[in-house]
Amino acid sequence: xxKQTETxxxxxRSPGRAEGAESKPAAxxxxxxxxxxxxxxxxxxxxxxxxxxxxxYLVDGGDFESCPYLHGRxxxxxxxxxxxxxxxxxxxxxxxxxxFADDMRKNLINVAVPGTGIALSWFCYFxxxxxxFVLFAYPFLCFVSALKSGDFDNKCRAFSEQLLEPKDWFSxxxxxxxxxxxxxxxxxxxxxxxxxxWTFLTEGKARGVPVSPWLDVGKLFVKHRNxxxxxxxxxxxxxxDGGDWIIQECLKNGEGVKEMLPDDAPLSTFRVVTxxxxxxxxxxxxxxxxNSLSCVFRAGRAGAMTDHQSILFDVDTxxxxxNGGTTNEHWYKLGLDKxxxxxxxxxxxxxxxxDTGRAVAGRTIENIREILDLVEDAHTKLAPGVPxxxxxxxxxxxxxxxxxxxxxxxxxxxxxxxDEYFRFVEGYFLDLEASMKQETKTKAAA
Length: 446
Hints:
Blueprint: H1 20-23, H2 39-58, H3 74-89, H4 100-107, H5 127-146, H6 152-164, H7 169-187, H8 197-206, E1 219-223, E2 233-237, H9 255-258, E3 270-276, E4 290-300, E5 310-315, E6 322-326, H10 368-382, E7 388-396, E8 399-406, H11 418-445
Antiparallel strand pairs: 1-2, 3-4, 3-7, 4-5, 5-6, 7-8
Helix pairs in contact: 2-3, 2-6, 3-7, 3-11, 5-6, 7-11
């Protein structure tokens, strides 16, 4: 086990969880709370600023740096600008799936605003429908969400927060998706090649990153022990032989991890999100290029195949202490029958694993520094120019391995320093905008 060590960038912690609006009182906003009696006026002005900003970006063709609205509110500026990017990126090539719109359709096919039961992918087939959703359905959903927030003044403040400074995991995830998509489209950074799982494994091994091992066989033939006549058979051509399948041994959870899980739990990983300034033109001026933002232990459920079915326990990246657990499963309830039975928010705060009663929160991940060093080193070696990466780290009976990297990454409701994160995002938006303007001028001059 590694001892805790200091880094060149202090890892500040935001008050409460990253999704304070769903689990604990919301973290303090950069915008002062309006006194009683003026909260309604502030909410109306925020809604007006939202529409003025969207008009500025979508109709006037204005840029992020010069936007005259939402001064001094970094998250609000980034939130509205990133929503406008949907329509700039819509038909642009995407590093993973055809176009940006194609990627939205694929990634949102199993995600629904809680209580609606309607997959968000349905709103991504036509640009005009997506535009209508952003301009009208989104503010309306913010209004509905705010109705659950106490007295009238608190409802008004909750509406403003959800509209311009949301704290839910989905908003953070989509922000990362838009930043990665814009960055990949403009820079064509080769780090995005690591999105392909086979490239990630082979390049990781070649560059000295401990990735999960694979079987050195060209083809695998599997058959049931009691089936006859050619039934119960399947054949898989391994990626090592040009196939589409990566054939690997099933790794087992290491002892420290296993103690927190049911006996039949799947391999349960730590999702660590790292940020790199290597894709910025000013990155050399920063004392540390890559640092970790958050860590979540995905405690797999009994009998599940993967830890996509799990309780998400937040882990403090400084001390390694495991905090309370929650889920985001209410965002994955599809079908009209879910409208009446799906809660709008998840307020669970598990201390124990619900399948075993074993204590999880309150434990300490003693090798947290080793986990963070691993992912920071991997980001530096494999994709230094990619802004954010979500790494899946497995601590197994055979060692610690990286399973994959996710560039449109999800914080999985882990806590992180919101101010630091949005300054980071703002820096990338400004940098990319300046670079695209310079490219346009260069082409025009040529």
